[in-house]
Amino acid sequence: MTNNTDTFSQRLLRWHALHGRHDLPWQQDRSLYRVWISEIMLQQTQVTTVIPYFERFMQRFPSSRALADATQDEVLHLWTGLGYYARARNMHKAAQIIRDDYADQFPEQIDWVLALPGIGPSTAGAILAQATGQRHPILDGNVKRVLSRLYAIEGWPGNKAVENQLWQLAESLTPQQNLADYTQAIMDLGATVCGRKSQCSACPVSHLCLAYQQNRVAEFPTPKPRKTLPVKQTQMLLLKSTTGGVLLQQRPPSGIWGGLWSLPECSEKNTPAIQRWSERQLGLKIQISDFLPTLRHTFSHFHLDITPIRCEVENPANHVLEASALVWYNTQQPEALGLPAPVLKILKNYQE
Quick check: 18 pLDDT over 60? Predict the structure, then answer.
């Protein structure tokens, strides 16, 4: 039974015991390492998408040391398709710091956790609350939505003043005990009941919710001011050797698709200019077969229209194979390399 004097956390914990998620892979053997990896993967990514990635990751990297000792290519390869690749690069760097500075033990002090690459206040709090039971509030996207509705908070949560207000509310609601369950419970509430399409009839705290009382649930959280995303264009050369390999080029370590292997990008527009570019930049003489249909890949801040250009290579020179940032990629027996999702799609579509 519940009553009107029950606190938010009491009602939430009671609901979670009956309706929350208890069988997620990272909830089994809930170590700091496993919870950390899951929290990084879950940033801006749904649970159903993350589960198979997490399971493959744990099979290959069962410990922080195994992750630290791996190559970046191995890490990015297992991350391929999950997006936001800076998460994987930062996670790999953090594992190396844990190996070198913390004797392979994930730190348990909040300041030390926050000092690791790729870990902000909400992620740090979620890791320590779930794995060690420490009391730390969290404020991921799901929690922002719950609190914005609960208190009818006006303004986009990405605004610093609004975010600070939400942090204060998160702190005030976080109980002193049962932190692992409470942290999972408030994330579950936002993910399964108080989602973009709310299910207020199933909510254990609807009687406390100002947005519900005011019949304004759909208005919260205030959406981000809409901007028209700019469109950028690029051409990618699908360079095939006589032996069937496709030339890949490693991108710079930072920026879009940092450290991943991609098809060489060329800004030249006509066939002779593209041929001259290839010979000058790659040392390869090519014949262009055809310009393939353009595909669009959308990032958070722009659209990228990619036109693949299928080419035949006349002289797959040995020095290209030896270049550290170039590799002939066998699509039939692929190496463990990290590939951007649209590049992987191009390779699958045109590997004949």
Answer: yes
